[in-house]
TrEMBL record:
The keyword Membrane applies. The chain crosses the membrane at residues 6-27. Keywords: Membrane, Transmembrane, Transmembrane helix. It comes from the Eukaryota. It comes from Cymbomonas tetramitiformis. This is Uncharacterized protein.
Amino acid sequence: MAKRLLQEVLIYAVSAVFSCMVLTVGLKRIENMRENSSPAAQRKREIAARLGRPIQTNSYEEVIAMDVVNPDDLSVEFSAIGGMEKIKESLVTTPDSFAHNFT
């Protein structure tokens, strides 16, 4: 009787361990597929291609990378800003006026 009980407990323990292993492997594969197909991963690949080298980022940096704009994609020039001539002029002359702050 005790031997049969021990066998059943052993079978349940082995099946529980096997089930945990299968779930762990399955969840890791799903996580890898999710990471590779996410927009953040796509943006990371685009930035790495533009830089010509692989980049290492954490999840926080990947979120920030989603908002980074490629300078080559900008089609607006400084002259296209309508109005605010004095502000544009001050933006151009401020570095000259405060050159001592930038050295």
